[in-house]
Design brief:
By secondary structure, the protein is an alpha/beta fold. The protein has 16 helices and 18 strands. It has 2 domains: about 5-330, Ribokinase (UDP-N-acetylmuramoyl-L-alanine:D-glutamate ligase, 3-Layer(aba) Sandwich), CATH 3.40.1190; about 335-460, HUPs (Rossmann fold, 3-Layer(aba) Sandwich). It has helices spanning about 45-55, 70-80, 125-135, 155-165, 195-205, 210-220, 260-270, 275-290, 300-315, 320-330, 345-355, 370-375, 385-395, 410-415, 435-440, 455-460; strands at about 5-10, 15-25, 35-45, 60-65, 85-90, 100-105, 110-115, 140-145, 170-175, 190, 225-230, 235-240, 245, 335-340, 360-365, 400-405, 420-425, 445-450.
Length: about 450
């Protein structure tokens, strides 16, 4: 657990089984279909699916749960190891290793068989779990309570775990199943679906309206309720007594299995990565539109996550700072080149093209008119900033153009902290502004061999 942004997940885990079948005939015994098994798929379910979703997009989950010591348990552990998920499991043959078996025909689920029994966590295991959390609390930034009401998350464990994270000023996000919402008191964000919310309101004899959701927020001392509504999107209820409705992208829904797990995974990963709550919620909702188009219990791979980040930045028209945050979260390699770029010529295009081959996102830091006058004299720039920016933005390999007023771009370089800084070969690495800062932070400076002997000054003189 080297990453200081580890996400601790406490919750029920189970094996999701999908049996793809083919229709053969109608049984002569009874008027029912006879199916033959084509393919059997076994996947991580419940809190293990939450962990897997976080892991696949680059996060660091740590999972704690309980199981019986049986063949289903061994399959779950094998899948956890295969997906490189760190975990700590507690075994007792009195416990259950839940299995949800789904029969699928022609890509449609028509039957589910659950094998499980609800057994409460024993006191010995409860104590061991809390001791482990106390000992390792500094390694975790956020707690997810993934409650499937299978007996692992008892009231004592929930209360003590929330207390430990509250005392250490860390975030708690809860996916609740218990209608007695008080047991989750102290959670920062509570994320029920609309059915679970209505069950909680009924438990307290409250009607479904904003005013009464505010009562639940006060009962739990939470910052907000985030209520998922499937194809209808979600509603954020905050202490400010404002409802924020976030619609779902209009897509063809294929399979909603585990979509709630995916939502809480994306939400938690963005929050722990210091993305603001509104963008965290909106992106989690946006990403789930991709999840429900997939078969079975699903996740995003890193390339899909990157693609969604790029689409989200474009669709939401995010500012530069937010884009940088999200690009870094998606582990996109960020490159920077800087200069006056007064008259765009072949040498500049060569620099941009070669730079883009070495990064995912290319940012151009461009001197403002004021900055150029100070460096080059009152006769420059030839082309005003607004026009220079317009030209640069027309170049396909450039992703952002950011002007600066100072003599050098060092403030911007410190702010962006790119993975790589590009400069033409009329500079030596050590002479490049930002070289010391970047190399000290294990970033790179790359010198690109100049294309012929182009320069704006020579073009002007000639």
């Amino acid at each position: 657990m080297k990453d200081n942004k580890n996400i601790l997940i406490l919750g029920d885990i189970f094996l999701d089984v999908f049996e793809d079948t083919k229709f053969e005939k109608i049984s002569p015994e009874k008027p029912v279909q006879v199916l033959t098994l084509v393919k059997k798929i076994e996947l991580l379910g419940g809190a293990a699916n939450v962990a897997n979703n976080i892991k696949k997009i680059g996060g660091s989950p740590f999972l704690i749960s309980k199981l019986s010591n049986n063949s289903t348990s061994k399959k779950i552990q094998k899948l956890l190891r295969k997906n490189r998920i760190n975990y700590k499991l507690f075994f007792d043959n009195k416990y259950s290793s839940p299995e949800k078996r789904r029969i699928v025909s022609e890509d449609h689920q028509f039957l589910r068989v659950d094998t499980e029994k609800i057994i409460l966590l024993n006191k010995k295991h409860e104590k061991e779990i809390l001791n482990f959390i106390k000992k390792n609390i500094s390694k975790f930034e956020i707690l997810i309570l993934s409650d499937y009401a299978k007996g692992f998350l008892n009231a004592n464990l929930i209360k003590a775990a929330i207390s430990l994270f509250n005392k250490n000023k860390k975030i708690i996000i809860t996916d609740p199943k218990n209608s007695n919402i008080k047991i989750y008191k102290g959670s920062n964000f509570i994320c029920p679906n609309s059915f679970e919310l209505n069950q909680s309101l009924k438990f307290y004899n409250l009607k479904a309206n904003n005013r009464n959701v505010q009562k639940l927020i006060k009962l739990t001392n939470s910052k907000a309720y985030i209520v998922t509504k499937g194809s209808e999107g979600l509603i954020l209820y905050s202490r400010k007594k404002k409802e924020i409705y976030i619609p779902q992208k209009n897509v063809k829904i294929y399979d909603v299995t585990g979509a709630g797990d995916s939502f809480i995974s994306f939400l938690s990963y963005l929050i722990v990565s210091k993305i603001d709550i509104i963008n965290s919620i909106k992106f989690a909702n946006f990403a789930c539109s991709k999840i429900v188009q997939k078969k079975y219990t699903s996740y995003l791979d890193l390339n899909e996550f990157r693609s969604l980040i790029e689409n989200y930045c474009f669709l939401e028209n995010l500012n530069f700072e937010k884009k940088i945050q999200l690009w870094k979260l998606a582990k996109l390699k960020i490159g920077v080149a800087n200069g006056c770029f007064d008259i765009i010529h072949s040498g500049h295009l060569h620099l941009f093209e070669k730079a883009k081959l070495n990064c995912d996102k290319l940012i151009i830091l461009i001197n403002s008119d004021k900055s150029i006058k100070k460096l080059k004299g009152n006769h420059r720039p030839i082309i005003k900033l607004s026009e220079r920016k317009k030209f640069l933005k027309m170049i396909k390999c450039i992703d952002e153009v950011i002007p600066f007023d100072e003599d050098t771009p060092i403030k911007n370089l410190i702010k962006i902290e790119p993975d790589i800084l590009f400069k033409g070969s009329d500079y030596k690495k050590a002479e490049v502004v930002g070289f010391n800062f970047l190399t000290q932070n294990k970033k790179k400076v790359k010198i690109i061999k100049k294309y012929k002997n182009f320069s704006t000054s020579k073009l002007i003189i000639s």
